[in-house]
Write a structure and sequence with these properties.
It is built from 2 helices and 11 strands; from the N terminus they run βββαβββαβββββ. The chain is mainly beta.
Length: 172
């Protein structure tokens, strides 16, 4: 199983959404989960994981078991020095029980070029990093499938709080 998760913030609240699916090439989701979390700490520059990690850990408790792969919006490791990013902190927090794939839309300083993945004819890359697999480069192979789910379609209670999960699929 593969679980893709993203978080949206509105003031001191977070709306966390995740989709569970079985195969990279499949288009059917097994389940869609959302949860709202209050009293979120403010963003600290350079410490993104401190705000995002508790939200992801909370939504993971709603699954029967940890999936084989978790896809997050962010980096596993940052820059050429491979400093721990959100994905590495998540991997450590769950004792390495899942492969973590980080998909980032913005380049972090000194990000190695081999993390770049281009979708279709896009001129702007995604940056893909992974941990918990012997072949992180396989996690960078993009399929044609692209997920875009409106939280309002998965039972969000407040329609003013919308979030789009944009997770690009990767072949494991």
């Amino acid at each position: 199983m593969i679980f893709a998760v993203d978080v949206n913030y509105i003031e001191d609240k977070a709306l966390v959404a995740g989709i569970l699916f079985e195969y990279w090439q499949g288009s059917e989701t097994i389940c869609q989960i959302t949860t709202k979390i209050n009293n979120i700490s403010e963003y600290e520059p350079g410490q993104f994981y401190k705000r995002e990690l508790p939200c992801i850990l909370e939504i993971l408790t709603q699954l029967e078991s940890l999936p084989e792969i978790i896809v997050v919006d962010g980096y596993v490791e940052l820059g050429a020095e491979q400093k721990p990013g959100l994905g590495k902190h998540l991997h450590d927090a769950i004792d390495g029980k899942s492969i973590i794939i980080g998909v980032a839309k913005n380049r972090f300083e000194d990000t190695p070029v081999e993390t770049e993945v281009f979708r279709g004819g896009s001129q702007r890359p995604l940056y893909v990093t992974a941990i918990g697999t012997r072949s992180p480069e396989k996690c960078r192979v993009v399929t044609a499938h692209y997920f875009s789910i409106d939280i309002n379609q998965v039972e969000a209670k407040n329609t003013t709080e919308q979030i789009m999960i944009n997770i690009t699929s990767y072949i494991y």
